[in-house]
User: What shape does this take?
Amino acid sequence: MPGIQSNGTVDAGRLEVWLKAAREKAKFADRAEVCDQTIGSVFSHCPADPDGTWPCAAVLDAMEIMCSVHLDR
Assistant: This one.
């Protein structure tokens, strides 16, 4: 999981940097749709927040930023 820290939580800033880079490269390669689907698959394996909330807040925020139907699949 991109942005995961040694304590098991996800660093939202690092996740966002990775997300933007991955989507930019995929767009350049004309693979944006499959990229978003793959990111969705990666997100499905994210850890829960310490309070048990799943998906964790960093992933929820990233999903909101992306606003992609393909990610939701």
